[in-house]
Write a structure and sequence with these properties.
Blueprint lengths: L39 H8 L1 H9 L4 E4 L5 E3 L2 H5 L4 H7 L6 E4 L5 H8 L4 E5 L2 H9 L4 E3 L12 E6 L10 H11 E11 L6 E10 L8 E6 L1 H10 L2 E9 L2 E8 L7
Parallel strand pairs: 3-4, 3-6, 4-5, 6-7
Antiparallel strand pairs: 1-2, 1-8, 7-11, 8-9, 10-11
Helix pairs in contact: 2-6
Bound molecules: S-adenosylmethionine.
Protein name: Class I SAM-dependent methyltransferase
InterPro entries: SAM-dependent_MTases_sf (IPR029063)
Keywords: Methyltransferase, Transferase
């Protein structure tokens, strides 16, 4: 696997735990064509006021609102804080260069940089990306379904904090991540606490007051449900665990390669 260097954005370069052989700038990705499965509404919704405002104040309340009125709390305070013990347990499993999908304000990027690991965050929210960069992470304002640097060469992809829901179609997201990762590399994903939960819904980001954002597709999956989708798509389950009241899985795509 060629190494990936993620050094084309503002902010300090990550430390030297990984030998960098190839320099790839973020401008050099244009040739990749990607089927976008996500609605424009999703990009607009996460870019809109309720989320940007919550990131600005570093506090909620903020929710994903289902059409039946049910509210899923979004843990803005935790995302704006430092990585906690459960996060660090996930990060200890990372291999190679890390792509943090839906990086939000970047607590995981900061922790990875502190460990000297090469990492890039991507997020459709401009407010999230600028906070992540201000915190010393490397991040791009991009959807996971857009052309991305290092396609086919990432060592680890992260999908934490419910981000398995991105796009509202878990099979499409898994297929996209399988293309982004190098063969035999790792997806670390957080799942919903109910193992069999398999929900695809239309949601809006909303605060306690004010106008909710545009509706967009989202998914929530428990561990058993995610493992079913992953198994059907040829991923291998490496581990599943709980920590700090949260559930996680480690999945490996394609044939195994030697680990660092
Ligand atoms: C549930 S929040 C998770 C926050 C985050 N993991 C953190 O550490 O703060 C979902 C995040 O995914 C981002 N997002 C939504 N759709 C996306 C997409 N298609 N590609 C990349 N990021 C996306 C949102 O802007 C938001 O920051």
């Amino acid at each position: 696997m060629r190494a990936i260097r993620v050094g084309a954005q503002r902010g300090p370069a990550p430390g030297g735990a990984e030998t960098v052989q190839t320099v790839e700038s973020v401008e050099s990705v244009g040739a990749e064509t990607v089927q976008t499965v996500e609605s424009v509404g999703a990009v607009r919704a996460w870019s809109a006021d309720p989320y940007a405002e919550a990131l600005h104040t570093e506090r909620g309340p903020l929710f994903l609102r289902r059409p039946d009125g049910w509210l899923l709390p979004l843990e803005v305070e935790r995302w704006c804080a430092e990585a906690d013990a459960a996060d660090l347990e996930v990060l200890r499993r990372c291999e190679g260069a890390v792509l943090d999908v839906g990086c939000g304000p970047g607590r995981l990027l900061t922790a990875l940089a502190a460990q000297g690991r090469s990492a890039l965050g991507i997020d459709v929210s401009e407010a999230a990306v600028s906070r992540a960069v201000r915190r010393g992470g490397q991040a791009l304002h991009r959807s996971v379904f857009d052309p991305l640097p290092g396609t086919g060469r990432w060592g680890t992809a992260l999908l934490l904090d419910g981000n398995i829901g991105i796009g509202g179609d878990p099979s499409a997201l898994l297929a996209r991540l399988a293309r982004l990762l190098a063969p035999g590399r790792l997806l670390l994903a957080e799942t919903a606490p109910l193992p069999d939960l398999d929900e695809r819904v239309t949601v809006q980001v909303t605060g306690a007051r004010g106008t909710p954002g545009s509706p967009f597709p989202w998914a929530r999956l428990g561990t058993a449900a995610l493992l079913r989708y992953a198994g059907e798509a040829g991923w291998r389950t490496e581990a599943d665990w709980t920590s700090g009241g949260r559930s996680f899985v480690a999945l490996r795509t394609g044939p195994a390669t030697s680990r660092r």
